User: What shape does this take?
Amino acid sequence: MPEAISVTQLNTYIKQIFDAEEFLHNIPVMGEVFGVSFSRNVIYFSLKDDNSTLPCVCFYPNLIDKIIEGQKLIVTGSPNFYTKGGKLNFNVIKVENVGQGKLYEQFLQLKQKLQDEGLFDSAHKKKIPNDIKRIGVITSREGAVIQDIKNVAWRRNPTVDIVLYNTKVQGNMAENEIAHAIEVMGNYQNIDVIVVARGGGSLEDLWAYNTEMVARATYNCPKPIISAVGHETDFTIIDFVSDLRAPTPSAAAELLTYNLNDKKLELFGLADAFVKECEDYLFNQNNNINNINLYLSNDIEKKVMNEQKELSSIKLNITNVFSNFINQKYYELGITENILNKINPNEILNKGYAKVEQFNKSINSIKQLDMNDSFSVIFKDGMIDAKAISNKKDYKQEGEK
Assistant: This one.
């Protein structure tokens, strides 16, 4: 049995074989680009044909514009076996564009067809709800995508519900599962919005989302759909049909949820603004009331003064009228008094006349006097009883003479 060698020894030996073979230096290789990524000025991608793939590395960042997903390229370079990682890469130093790959041509043809049918029209796109309580997610339960969506969504708003519909995200029958999931979730009454999501990958990896079946299921879905497929630079057919495209699954979760803390701060701000508005309103109303009170006080004071003046005038008029009435009555009373004085018996007596009474009756004629009885003669200062010395007959006779 031969003596065992270390992994490092084997990898070093393989590397030496690649480095020693002149045929493998600066050779052109043709294939279709997929799985492009860019990190620290290094371009990573792969070339493929119908049967094989070749991992490539390019340390010339200025070539990034030529290395496009789905393009058919001729790249010039050399294979390099990395001893430490035990991995073969093709180091690219030159890139020539041959044309579009078959898969990319299929992508463009389907895109044009669906666009002509109006599946991309903005008029058909549904509005994303403002207040989202439940999000339906169509992706694989095994990948990191669903965890990223949960982490972002629940960090921002722990009250939102997330419902997962588990599907394949690539490979055989993946498009059937995705299209069916869209149809089923579209009929859920308690789902507010649907996110179709998966991580990044090559054009081939993302092909399920470039199929006509998934595109039409998305177009016919009654619920709003957000596509969150691949990285920011990846575009698929579902991106154009969906109601909104998110550059990544995490970005979709952020778009569909509001930050609860920010919402609280916003509500606190609104509450403070409301209190300030109320205070300003009460202050202004208090000023208005004070102004009205001052106006009313001044107005009432003026009215009271005017009423007092009018009352004084009325009082003076009444006093004058009453005084004139009293004076008139005094005048009339004086006239009446004079009249009464003239006919007052006492006044007559004061003039030297006397009053004769007999049997408590006034005697104004000798004919009324009973000569046989006494009678009274009333003076102003007293009364005497008297008796006639002659009878009526004698008096009459004497009078007749």
Confidence is low (pLDDT under 50) at residues 395-401. The chain has four domains: 7-100, 106-121+132-258, 266-341, 347-400.
